[in-house]
Design a protein that fits this description.
Largest sheet of chain A: none
Largest interface: B-C, 78 and 70 residues
Number of domains of chain A: 3
Shape of chain A: flat
Number of helices of chain A: 13
Radius of gyration of chain A: 29 Å
CATH topology of the largest domain in chain A: Four Helix Bundle (Hemerythrin (Met), subunit A)
Distance between the termini of chain A: 65 Å
Structural class of chain A: mainly alpha
Helix content of chain A: 55-70%
CATH superfamily of the largest domain in chain A: Voltage-gated potassium channels. Chain C
Oligomer: homotetramer
Chain lengths: 291, 291, 291, 291
């Protein structure tokens, strides 16, 4: 039974995992559809039925995992264990404690379990790609933190600047207090929200400069922000490039010191000078002779 | 006749293809213009005439292709064969079955045939570039799939989160049921649509957070989403870089010092001056003689 | 006088060019300001005076260039000659022929002359960078054309698709003719405009899907379009990377066959095997001895 | 005392810096919150109290820095000195001179001091990353300037073009003067603001083309602008890639075969097995002995 649940190599295990995957997708769609008033009205009973059915199935599965797991506690507090628990709790909580039952939508956390799909779909290779991706981001983490701090400072300052140009100044001109003056930039946090929406080039347009000065300044900030925001993408790309670059190295390891990172075409270990045994180089080597 | 239709090397074939290309462009513009009410009113007759003329021409061409093709069936079920058929069917269907004749716009599928233009315009080289492009995308396909799954999970979760912050919570505060509460995030699918529009930095602005909490959270999600969305572009770029990189080196290694990083077309090893043994260079080399 | 106008090496020539640059900047600001109603009302006379003064100066300069140029005709029909002419014509045309004098704004073409500033500011190096940039784009031109054709096909098809989902279908459901049905996607060209605005992630929000189906489809199109639109940036980056890569080669040319593209650290010419004379390699070379 | 304030190696200094950091974060939040009308009304007294407390603390710190600094004047006019001063002045100015006390928000300049956090958080490594980032941008500065000039010219021209298509032409058709004609593109500067917002793909949507011609032209401009705007990101990425690339190789060349592409830390040439003469490896090498 342990194999069926935790492995997907056996036919049974594979069937189990695929079924689980479908169940997760169903329940996510159900939870989503339930929130659409028009649908909720007509189909509520059907949806709730499916929802409950799935929740019970997931509960059984969770218990089964706990039972089968070699280290139940370790599983219970592992990432997947917590996700599995969180993905069933909301429905119960919603049922027992919240009459209006809104919390159930939290069950959407099940979507995280989709990542488990990787195992089912035999996407080992994908996972390794995901790892690579993660490493790329991880290697660039320091750069990203520096970048985020710089961005936050830029957002704070440009937000304050816009708040002044768009609210304080016009208010002074109009002779009213800023809080009475009607402006979209009605506070610094609001202006910072604008700055983030603008710098990432999302640009909703719900908050836009209206004064001429405001437009001039925001045009400048947009150009500066744009030059700022393209940087992290450069970092990630550079990181990924250098990775694909380093893949050009050979994995051959030195027979003496076992160093295994050699440039392509290396004949001698760059650590200990030992000759690397490669079939196509068994032909004796002129350089070595004269030494 | 086969050559005229399927090849573009002969003058006749070239003329045919260019004519075809122009015909396709015309018909696309016509179909587009027909949908503009103001134009449709005045010019309807002219447009319909052109449209019918072109459709008949395309039908004749299709029949001709079927007749000339060495393997009519294989052509009929090939990609181009199906496109050719789909590009004439809508007009007939629209005429015979749909009185209001809306389906005709489907004839816009003809635009796909424009890709055939590559052949006409002697853009073989472009096609090879297109291949390269396709390979770059293809090599990164696993990464892209992983990425899409991660994106969908992120979209689902952030959508649900925003639905809660923008609809459920305010509704509870206002003491009404969520479906009665007026909010732009009126369902989880709607919120997921918002999440996609936001993460890709399209940012229409038709759905925007209105509560303070909603703005704070969406600002965070925007920054996270932005860092997430720049990744695939990094992958494609890295892929393309490594391709253009590897095109610059040969794998041939020097017989004496085994240096294998030579510029394309190198005759002598740039390390030890040894002659590189390459079939196409066995002809003795004048420069060498005089030394 | 020729030197003063066409060269900027002499002090006089430099002063002339800087003055010209300032004049151009002034006139651009003036022309822009003239279009702002509030300003135009009060300052119209002043602005017009400056504008006329500058136009006359530019006319004198143009005549002077014609006179001094070694080949007046060649200058007159050169790129810069035409730009110089176009930058003064509008004001006169506006004055003599167009009473309401709108054409004058065309004088904004003067901004093109700012590119001449490079010469003044001794930005030769920048120009070379601009060349490099241009070459990068030029080398990727085939890819870019392929890309544009693909984009146009994608835009046409997705535009038509959205036109159907957002206008035709609802119209049929409502039982009215499409042109009577009120929708933002009121024609295929309009929908194509939406597709371009969306795929480039500009996302004005003036045209947005309103039906559920429309939102689902456009969400998909956005993700597809995004993956499509990141490609050219990948091409340009790859091109630029490989350029900065190839800069790592040495410019040293072989004393015998004058090949001048060698890998950094090459000792022997990869074309003729001749030893490359480099100071730091004059120390005799073990490899050479044993041959 | 000098160490406590200027260094963060001693426990005391570290505590001081962390406290300072927290104080800065507090005061920024306070200043931001003060601008939110709803909060300002209720909590004004509390917020002002905290604000004054922090300002006085910062003043004391500033004086202390002046006193402890080895070269008080040099500190006073250093970047950090000026920032420290500017971060306390606004509150006093607001108190003594401006009754409505708006200037205080300028105290948000304190956020710049957050960059000092790097020192506290022992983020030396991050700082070096920031340097690298800065160098990457700095190396690409000429390209960026060229790019900005080109962008400004493009913005000016496309802005003027849109102003004509959207305002002048319709006004002439309607037979009214442009300033009377109601259009979103009501002046060239306004149109230039639109051009910048559009080219950077921010796309607020507060100014959008309404005429058919305007839409066609802006669709073209968007595509052109997009191809233009992806270039600098390409430059930065290429710069970063080549940096991370060059960090992987040493310039040391092998004394025998002059191969100079060795992995960092290589002891023996990977081509000919010769020992690479490097100062930090002169200590004899155990591996070598046993051969």
């Amino acid at each position: 039974m342990h194999d069926v649940i935790f492995e997907s190599d056996t036919p049974a295990g594979w069937t189990f995992d695929v079924g689980l995957l479908i169940a997760i997708l169903c329940s996510i769609s159900v939870i989503s559809l339930e929130t659409i008033p028009s649908i909720a009205k007509q189909e509520l009973f059907v949806l709730e039925a499916i929802e409950w059915l799935l929740t019970i199935l997931f509960s059984i599965e969770y218990v089964a995992r706990l039972v089968c797991a070699r280290h139940p506690l370790r599983y219970a507090f592992s990432f997947w264990g917590i996700v599995d628990l969180l993905s069933i709790l909301p429905t119960y909580i919603g049922f027992f404690f919240v009459p209006q039952n809104q919390t159930r939508s939290f069950a959407i956390l099940r979507s995280i379990r989709l990542l488990r799909a990787f195992r089912v779909l035999k996407l080992w290779r994908m996972m390794s790609d995901a790892d690579e991706l993660w490493h790329a981001v991880w290697n660039a983490r320091h750069k990203i933190i520096v970048f985020l701090i710089v961005v936050m400072v830029a957002v704070t300052i440009s937000g304050t600047l816009m708040y002044f140009v768009e609210t304080i100044v016009p208010a002074l001109v109009a002779g009213v207090r800023p809080e009475q003056y009607d402006s979209r930039f009605d506070s610094i946090p609001q202006a910072m929200y604008w700055a983030i929406v603008t710098m990432t080039t999302v640009g909703y347009g719900d908050i836009v400069p209206t004064t001429t000065t405001g437009k001039v300044i925001s045009a400048t900030l947009i150009l500066l922000g744009y030059s700022l925001i393209i940087v992290p993408s450069g970092f990630v790309t550079a990181e990924l490039s250098s990775r694909s670059e380093s893949e050009k190295r050979t994995g051959d390891s030195c027979p003496r010191c076992a160093t295994d990172e050699h440039l392509v075409g290396a004949i001698y270990c760059h650590r200990c000078g030992e000759r690397l045994g490669r079939s196509h180089q068994d032909s004796e080597d002129p350089l070595r002779k004269d030494s």
